[in-house]
Every structure is written in C-alpha cells, then in structure tokens.
Design brief:
The chain has about 80 residues and is α/β, with parallel strands linked by helices. It is built from three helices and three strands. Helix 1 links the parallel strand 1 and strand 2. Helix 1 packs parallel to helix 2. The longest helix has 12 residues.
Length: about 80
C-alpha cells in the first residue's frame, strides 16, 4: 500500500512508517507547508519524493487543500 504523508516539522511518525513499512506500507510522497521543515532532509535520506505546498496569507483552507491534493494526484486542477 502506498501512502502520502503530511508533516510540518520533523515527521517522526512518517519516518517510522518509512523505516518499518508496517503491513507493507510505502511512503510514496511527503508533503509539508514549510520549506525549512526537517522532514524534507529525512525524506531525502530515504529517497522519498517531497512537495512543499505553502499556504499563502489569507488563502482559504479549501483552496490550500485542493493544492495539496493536486500535488499528490488526488484531484485534477479545475
């Protein structure tokens, strides 16, 4: 099973999933909203693709959620 994970800082839980692969889980991509998040380095060390989707000041939550979904292939651009 391939999963996409979201983290805003270190991503300890995602790192554990990537390292242990419980139930055969594979972390396919890690998304964060912070270009300086330590989880980006951890993902690079493990060869996991990443995407940074920052939320602009005043951006509606729904619009930001659509942007995240688009980055994971969960929704097509409208």
């Amino acid at each position: 099973m391939r999963v996409a994970g979201m983290a805003s800082n270190r991503g300890r839980n995602l790192r554990r999933i990537a390292d242990l692969a419980p139930g055969g889980a594979e972390v396919a991509v890690i998304l964060t909203n912070d270009t300086d998040a330590p989880v980006l380095d951890a993902a690079e060390e493990r060869g996991i693709p990443t995407a940074v989707v920052e939320r602009s000041p005043g951006e509606e939550r729904e619009r930001h959620e659509r942007a995240r979904q688009q980055r994971t292939g969960g929704e097509r651009e409208q």
